[in-house]
Amino acid sequence: MQCPYCKKEMKEGILSGDARQGVSWKEGDRKASLFDKMGGSCAVTAAKCGLSVFTIQAHFCPGCKKMIIDTDVEK
Ligand SMILES: [Zn+2]
Predict the structure, then answer these.
(1) In the chain, what percentage of residues exceed pLDDT 90?
(2) N or C: which end of the chain has fewer CB within 10 A?
(3) pLDDT of residue 17 exceeding 70
(4) Where are the domains of the chain?
(5) How much distance in Å is there from the Cα of 6 to the middle of ligand 1?
(6) pLDDT at residue 31 in the model
(7) 12 Cα: distance to centroid of ligand 1 (angstroms)
(8) CA separation, residue 37 to residues 4, 41, 64 (Å)
(9) Tens of pLDDT along 34-57?
(10) Distance separating alpha carbons of residues 68 and 75, to the nearest angstrom
(11) What spacing in Å lies between the alpha carbon of 66 and ligand 1's midpoint?
């Protein structure tokens, strides 16, 4: 994938972390609340959660410090 900022080739990799909190995205300047998460909203669908880790396929541009992921957010 070509970086939309600098047009150089982006690196492809796997983003990973702690699965207990999952991965959330919420519009605006406040993070997803526990209530949002319990209701199943704001979940980033690209995050594949296992017992203790999550993984996301991501393209990374080291020059621009940007990542691009294909995903959706549960309403
Ligand atoms: Zn770039």
Answers:
(1) 25
(2) C
(3) no
(4) 11-68
(5) 4
(6) 84
(7) 13
(8) 32, 6, 31
(9) 888 788 788 888 888 888 888 888
(10) 21
(11) 7
Q: In whole angstroms, give the CA distance from residue 75 to residue 71.
A: 13
Ligand 1 centroid to Cα of residue 14, in Å, is 18
- The Cβ of residue 12 has, within 10 Å, a number of other Cβ atoms equal to 11
- Is the pLDDT score of 30 beyond 80? yes
pLDDT higher than threshold 90 for residue 5: yes
CA distances 56 to 35, 44, 59, 60, Å, are 24, 10, 10, 12
Expressed in angstroms and rounded, the spacing between residue 13 Cα and the centre of ligand 1 is 15
11 CA → ligand 1 middle, Å: 10
Report the separation in Å between the CA atom of 33 and the middle of ligand 1, taken as the mean of its atom positions: 32
**d(CA 18, ligand 1 centre) in Å:** 27
